[in-house]
Amino acid sequence: MTAVAELYLRDVRERMAEIRHLGDRALSQLGDGDWHRYLADGGNSAAVLVQHLSGNMHARWGGLRGGYRPDHEGEPASRDRDAEFEEGRLSPAELQACWDEGWAVLRGPGTPDTGGPDTHIDHPR
């Protein structure tokens, strides 16, 4: 791998670790009754956002595991995107697991969960 590629991947991993940490902090503030609450008309609850983000992580990052192909964006035929927007079907514990499983796709198999993707970067303060 070239030095530029290594720098780029390190930067991506750092940015994704920051995003993961931000999401973890936001979700940790939710009580059991908050996951399915809408904050605005026409908006999505935290539950729906987690379901959709996890589905997107599986589709996009999981699709890249086989290598990049210009004609393939990573959307598997098995993905039920509409179901990701169904409200009230998962408990807070199941939603947290869904969130963690989505991030695990980016980390890759066998990588310890450090709160970030495939890296051992400490969370930003």
Overview of this protein structure:
The structure is a single chain. The chain is mainly α. It is built from three helices and no strands. The longest helix has 26 residues, at 3-28. The chain is globular and about 50 Å long.
Give the structure's gist in a few sentences:
Helix content is 49%, strand content 0%.
Layout of helices and strands:
Blueprint: H1 3-28, H2 46-64, H3 92-107
Helix pairs in contact: 2-3
| Spatial shape | globular
Rg (CA only): 16 Å
Distance between the termini: 31 Å
DSSP summary, beta strand count: 0
Element pattern in H and E: HHH
Structural class: mainly alpha
What is the percentage of strand-forming residues?
under 5%
How is the main sheet built? none
Helix content: 40-55%
The low-confidence parts are: 114-125
Compute the average pLDDT: 83
How many separate helices? Answer: 3
Keywords:
single chain, 125 residues, mainly alpha, 3 helices, 49% helix, globular, disordered C terminus
